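Internal ticket - ligand job 283, nicotinamide-adenine-dinucleotide:
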Amino acid sequence: MATLIDGKAIARALSNTTAQAVAQMVADGLPTPGLAVVLVGNDPASEVYVGRKISQCAKVGIHSIEHRLAADTAQDDLLALIAALNADATVHGILVQLPLPAQIDAGKVLDAIDPAKDVDGFHPVNVGRLSTGTGGLVPCTPLGCMMLLDTVIDNYRGLDAVVIGKSNIVGKPVAMLLLERECTVTVTHIATQGLPDIVRKADIVVAAAGAPELVKGDWVKPGAVVIDVGITRVNQPDGTTRLVGDCAAHEMDHARAVTPVPGGVGPMTIACLLANTVQAAQS
Ligand code: NAD
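stdout (structure tokens):
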């Protein structure tokens, strides 16, 4: 039976560590870490994510400042807000919730964030630092994936890792982190040919495709560790919906360890955001 990697418990432990770090900073007379969360428009999923991030900030003692802008906000107005947040010494982290409305170029907005406050790790400077292994702020979901892997893998050196998905927010950064640990990394995507056979060679599988149950049990080598990043809400025959990962969870008994969906990678993402905010405040 595969070990179930309990993302909820690991995220809770990380948040406890973050809360202790915040308390220590305050006790030392340092400023309370501050996170500005910018939400443009009223996408329902984004509202839920932003609400969760803000409530988790409160739990660990991070001061969060919410900026809600109308869906028709002009790009220049958003850029002006980012400039003001960059200049505000009480703000240590800036998070712009994606997606942004069509009139706004998300790339331009992310590029405008001070890299030292870029707690999502999406700024080209932080992407460059990650790819050169020179520190910086690391994107939250990939960072969370590595923390989950660390609970079951001591030595990554020479392991075969296959990443499914090449997005800038998950696939590519997680590949960089695995490469840094000296795994042999294969990054696959929608146009990859022979994906099942590529996955069969892997000691570590990180699935971040957003394709429900794409990875079948017989794609996974016995003893492999499987990190399932995908989350898709699918309709059930009885009219209800449920969250499904990228891996056929019920076919993974022969794996060494797997992450559940929900309760695996998901909780780690916010916990890593809080940890990144404290890192930004301390640097
Ligand atoms: P994305 O759409 O930006 O990228 C998906 C990637 O998967 C692409 O590179 C695409 O080529 C590849 N892909 C899609 N279908 C594939 C297939 N059938 N075979 C092989 N490759 C395929 O998505 P993303 O933002 O990277 O997110 C991926 C998934 O992870 C989504 O389900 C998303 O909801 C989830 N996610 C979860 C968290 C979390 O906190 N748990 C965070 C971010 C993303």
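Auto-summary: The CA atoms of residues 38 and 96 lie 5 Å apart. The longest helix spans residues 7-27.
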